[in-house]
């Protein structure tokens, strides 16, 4: 099928998605919209997009656009996706897909009713290095995995709304889905939340958090997220026979496996735009007439949304 994208937002991630679509060799970016016509015009000029709109409604009414990419602030994802589906558009929504489980379920149900494709844009599960890691875990190269240590950080000023609770900001909604969904995909089961704590800034948004999870019976996971410090952003997966080290795991091009017998294995997958793999999968799904992704599935999105909502509610009590 023809793939004509409309970009809903001028957010910082938009250029990377646009470049990924173009790098995929399929699909085109035909329009971009913002609530500010000036911002839309500026971003369109920067990215070489032919049409720009000063309202989301105008983008929805563009008859050439058949796929909407939603990259607005977290609190607006649900309303924006709903609007796109109601206008008969396929939907790709940046993570987190929604802030409430009920919202996620509503969007998938409506997409099914309208026979439209919908997917949460989660790049980590499509990275080739993650596929290589999964293959080695399934082959027992590390033996039993007992401990997983995840660290991610970014500056709160990266996006001003990250410090706003009302906007759906904070570490949890901003970054935790990377860890949760990566684990769910690598081990073919959802991790289970056990405990956690957060440091909040003025306004209520969490600026640092630690989440303790388990995968299966005896694999312990510690996920640390911060917008206060520039931490060493790595994932470590420790098994009986060795461990895997993954720098910037949510966008990784490389992983190093250090076996306890002294051997080392480097998994390297250089690429310019890491979102390309996600986009290629989207195009495959559309060509096959699928309504949901078999990898970034409805179940994974709904389960993750439910977990994040429950953790958030605990921290806000």
From TrEMBL:
Gene3D superfamilies, sorted: Dihydrodipicolinate Reductase, domain 2, NAD(P)-binding Rossmann-like Domain
Q: Which residues form the Gfo/Idh/MocA-like oxidoreductase N-terminal domain?
A: 10-119
Q: Where is the GFO/IDH/MocA-like oxidoreductase domain?
A: 131-245
InterPro entries tied to this protein: Gfo/Idh/MocA-like_OxRdtase_N (IPR000683), Gfo/Idh/MocA_domain (IPR050984), GFO_IDH_MocA-like_dom (IPR055170), NAD(P)-bd_dom_sf (IPR036291)
List the PANTHER family hit by this protein, alphabetically. OXIDOREDUCTASES, TRANS-1,2-DIHYDROBENZENE-1,2-DIOL DEHYDROGENASE
Q: Sorted alphabetically, which keywords does the UniProt record give?
A: Oxidoreductase
- Keyword Oxidoreductase among UniProt keywords: yes
Report the sequence similarity comment from the record: Belongs to the Gfo/Idh/MocA family.
Keyword Oxidoreductase assigned = yes
User: Mind telling me what this protein is named?
Assistant: Gfo/Idh/MocA family oxidoreductase
Question: What's an example of a GO molecular-function annotation for this chain?
Answer: oxidoreductase activity
Tell me, what's a Pfam family for it? GFO_IDH_MocA
